[in-house]
Amino acid sequence: MGLYLAPPGGAVVLSIDEKTQIQALDRTQPVLSVAFAVSERRTADYIRHGTMNLFAALNVTTGEVLGECRPTRNGKDFLAFLKKALKPHAGKDIHVVLDNLSTHTTPEVKEWLAKNPHVHFHFTPVGPSWLHQIKIWFGILTRQSIRRGTFSSVNVLVKQIRDYINSWNTTAKPFTWTATAGEVLAKVRLVATNVKKLVNNNSN
């Protein structure tokens, strides 16, 4: 929360993650758009042309996104993208918000991190993906560009994603983050208390 609400002076904060196994689905019939008194319609059947993995980094301060599509997702792919995402910010302290995917903590990644003390990893807790700003952006990408798309090949899907990122960056704005650490922890404690009461009631 502190990185979102009050980033360290002069430091760069990046939210980085992978959106895996994005499917290039080709509907057997074109999607029928919304018309007067008629909702959008699409066929239930489709042809699957393959999948692609999107690596993306959101600059928390500017809202700009750097993305790269790769056919595979492993520690080597992640480290290669991480270096690419950090390159424009050479010479600065960089804070990277990540989740707990195994690809983010491979021996190669740990070795590289030890050699680059200006880069600091911050891992979100297991479960609450809403704390990860790039996850929020993935949701926007899915709703606005992928879910209703018809893709005749993986290359068409990749182009769609690249075009969306380029369009996003022309008017990029940072997310307005309002939840403080204290507010979040208070809600966590309340939920924990309610769950404990529920368990106790069920055991009686």
3D structure, described in words:
- The protein contains six helices and five strands.
- The two termini are 39 Å apart.
- The protein has a five-stranded mixed β-sheet with strand order 3-2-1-4-5.
- The chain is an alpha/beta fold.
- The mean pLDDT is 89.
List the helices and strands and how they pair.
Blueprint: H1 2-5, E1 12-27, E2 46-59, E3 65-70, H2 75-86, E4 94-98, H3 107-114, E5 119-123, H4 133-146, H5 154-170, H6 181-203
Parallel strand pairs: 1-4, 4-5
Antiparallel strand pairs: 1-2, 2-3
Radius of gyration: 20 Å
Strand order of the largest sheet: 3-2-1-4-5
Q: What string, H for helix and E for strand, traces the elements in order? A: HEEEHEHEHHH
Tell how many strands the DSSP assignment holds.
5
Tell me roughly what share of residues is in helical segments.
25-40%
Helix/strand-derived category reads: alpha/beta
Distance between the termini: 39 Å
- In terms of DSSP E residues, the strand content is 15-25%
Largest sheet: 5 strands, mixed
Average predicted confidence as pLDDT: 89
Tell me the overall shape: globular
Number of separate helices? 6
